[in-house]
Amino acid sequence: MKAKEYYLGTGQHINERLSNQEFSINDYQIMVAIRLQAEGERRQVHISLFKDEREKDLVLQDDVYYFFFNRSLLEDALVQSLFESRDTDEYQLTLTKEEGSYLGQMAHIIDQYQKNEDSDLGAHFVANMVSQVIMITKLALERPPYEADKTESGDRKNMLANRFMKLVSERHKNNKRVVFYADKLSVGVRTLANATNEVLGYTPKELIDQATVKEGKRLLSETQRSVKDISFELGFDEENNFSSFFKKMAKVTPTQYRKDKNPKKK
Question: Among 18, 38, 79, 198, which has the minimal tally of Cβ within 10 Å of its Cβ?
Answer without folding.
Answer: 38
